[in-house]
Structures are given as C-alpha cells and as structure tokens.
Design brief:
The protein is an alpha/beta fold. The protein has helices at about 10-20, 35-50, 70-80, 90-95, 115-125, 155-165, 175-185, 200-210, 215-225, 230-235, 260-270, 300-305, 325-335, 340-350; strands at about 25-30, 55-60, 85, 100-105, 130, 145-150, 240, 245-250, 275-285, 285-295, 310, 315-320. It folds into 2 domains: about 10-220, inorganic pyrophosphatase (n-terminal core); about 230-350, Diaminopimelate Epimerase, Chain A, domain 1. About 45% of the residues lie in helices and about 20% in strands. The longest helix has 16 residues, at about 35-50. About 40% of the residues are buried. The structure holds manganese (II) ion. Manganese (II) ion binds near residues 37, 105 and 155.
Length: about 350
C-alpha cells in the first residue's frame, strides 16, 4: 500500500475532490493551441467535475479551425455530447470567487489564454490547480496546488493513472479511453521515445482494455498530417537529406507557415531514414522559425541553442529575427557538425 503522502496522484485526487466540492463552477483550461494531450486530459477532468454536479466548462480561446484537424474532430464529438466549450470572453462572465480554474498540460502563464490579473486573482483565492508534466519554465505560475509530474509521458498518462487507481468510471457516451490514448500516443512519440518508462505502456494497455479504439487514434493522427497541404509540400518538394543523415526542409522565402506546420513537417520526416529533421520557414513578417526533431543520436536542443533557441535531445525550436528562410537554412546546414552526433562525441571523449 502506498500512503497518500508518498503518492502525488493521491494528493492530486484529494485536492481535486475538495476543491471541486467547494466550487460553484469549474473551468478546465488546456494550453493554447490545444493538442491531443491537452484536450484528452481536459475531457477526463471535465467528466470528474461533472460527478460533483458542478457547472463545468472547458476554456479554449483559439479559433477552433486553427487547431490540428484531429483535435477539431474530438472537439466536434464532445460538443455533440453536450460538453460545454467556452472562449475567454464567456469565461470572464463566470469568473467569480466560486469558480475553480484547473490548468492542464501546462503551468506557464504564457501558454494559457488568461490575463495576468485573472491568474493572480485565482492564485490569491486558492482557486487555481495546475496539472502538468513539463518542467518549470520562465512563466510558471506559482500557486499552492501545483502538480507537476515530470516523470510522466503526458498529462493523459497522469489522468489515466488517477482514474484507474481510484476506479473512477464514467457512464456516458464520451470516448474517453480513445482520447486519453491519443494524448499518451502523441507525447510519448507513439510509445517509442527512448527512455520512456515502462509504466506508460501499462497505462496505454489498460486503456485498450477499456476499449480505446486504436484505429480511431490512427485516423485522428493521419487526419492531422494529411489535411495539411503546406506540410506535405515541405516534405515532398523542399526536403534535402544531407550527410550525417539529416533532413532539412527550407520553406519558400515568400510563404508563411505556422509553427505547428513546421513542427509537423519535422515530426513526419523522422519516418525517413534520417537521424534528425529540421523545418525552416517564415512565421511572420520578420521572424523565421526552425523546428527540430531527433531520434536521439543527434542533440536537437544543442543545435537550436546555436540559434538562441532551446529544447531537449528529441525536440527543439528556435526563432530568428530579420533574416530570410533561405539565409537561416544555409546557416543551419553549416551548423550541422558531427559533434552534435552524440555517439561520435562520446567516442572522442573516451
Ligand atoms: Mn502534453
């Protein structure tokens, strides 16, 4: 038996129960540009809040059509099942002192669609709970009820474990097991990322036992990739594979891309026989963005640091001002030196 003190999931459950019980209304806030992990875990929290029979809403302020197509599909499905999604303007009308706010899949002020004063008000009222799996960042909101699970693959894994550990069942038509599986699948890089803990597979398996529909997960992901013409164009027409087996996609100088399109192109290119992939493109009039993905042999984060960006071994990005995509592309190709190959580096240091 694990005691509640030792068990962070247990502590989270206690806080959620207590705060949900005391609230009049509950609003769940996934991060901006909600992805499968943010939306899946938000839906799980929504259903937990409904059990307390509170007026519950999910706050998404991005125009829905700007989100990934698979996420849009999920939103359409849950709205048709009566889940209430509101924007920030509507939220302001219900944001009184009896409203409990739960941030999910982020703890960063810069990643939630809320004004600083509203956040500080909620912190002061102790009406703010944060549940995240990312490490602390520059704009992390300090609050009493912070639950940061950096050892977990995803927010969906945290919620899955919580639901199973406390045998919480929902009798409804919401396809929660599938949504949670999609979140875990996304953030664990399809359960392949090196260093993934075994437990992630266990919870994913438990969701399959709860009838998570893997064909549907697959469809949600492919909708996401193929719906995007610009992403396809980057991959089919702008990809070069260089020595050190790195794929570089340099967008056209006069074409604008979203950071998500660049990220998707880089993600998708890892399917090729390359160790890393980079997508470069203009994201607004004076900013070029690089999205970097690696299978683990090349340190994507270290390369992005050369461009004043950041990230980790597998996933990183940088923004560059006042240059063109082709200029940044040339610099990037030059900077792809063998020392970023971790194996070579280790050998040299031996
Ligand atoms: Mn996540």
């Amino acid at each position: 038996m694990i005691s509640v003190e030792d068990d962070k999931i247990g502590q989270l459950k206690v806080v959620l129960d207590k705060k949900m019980q005391n609230a009049d209304s509950i609003t769940i806030v996934p991060h901006k540009r909600a992805d499968f992990d943010a939306i899946g875990s938000a839906i799980a929290l929504y259903l937990m809040a409904l059990k307390h029979q509170k007026n519950t809403t999910i706050l998404i302020d991005d125009p829905i059509y700007t989100l990934d197509s698979g996420v849009q599909t999920i939103i359409k499905e849950i709205e048709s099942q009566g889940i209430d999604i509101i924007d920030y303007k509507e939220y302001k009308k219900i944001a009184d002192s009896k409203n409990l706010l739960i941030l999910i899949d982020t703890s960063q002020a810069s990643l939630v669609p809320l004004e600083e004063e509203v956040i500080q008000q909620k912190v002061a009222e102790e009406n703010l709970i944060e549940i995240d799996h990312h490490p602390f960042g520059k704009t992390t909101i300090q609050t009493k009820d912070m639950f940061i699970f950096t050892e977990y693959s995803s927010a969906c894994e945290v919620l899955t474990k919580l639901l199973f550990q406390y045998k919480i069942k929902f009798h409804c038509n919401i396809d929660l097991a599938t949504y949670l599986y999609a979140g875990i699948w996304l953030d664990s890089n399809k359960l392949t990322k090196k260093g993934d803990r075994k437990e992630t597979h266990k919870w994913a398996g438990m969701l399959v036992e709860e009838d998570a529909d893997l064909d549907k997960v697959n469809e949600l992901f492919s909708e996401d990739l193929y719906s995007d013409r610009k992403v396809q164009d980057l991959i089919s027409n702008h990809m070069n594979i260089f020595s050190y087996t790195v794929a570089c996609m340099i967008g056209e100088d006069n074409k604008k891309y979203t950071p998500e399109e660049l990220a998707k192109a880089a993600d998708y290119s890892l399917k090729y026989k390359v160790d890393a992939a980079f997508a470069v493109g203009k994201i607004d009039n004076d900013t070029i963005s690089i999205s970097a993905r690696s299978k683990g042999k090349i340190n994507a984060g270290a390369i992005m640091q050369e461009f004043n960006g950041g990230g980790n071994l597998y996933s990183a990005a940088a923004k560059i001002k006042e240059e063109t995509a082709s200029e940044v592309g040339k610099k990037l190709i030059k900077s792809l030196k063998p020392e970023f190959y971790l194996e070579l580096n280790n050998k040299r240091n031996q």
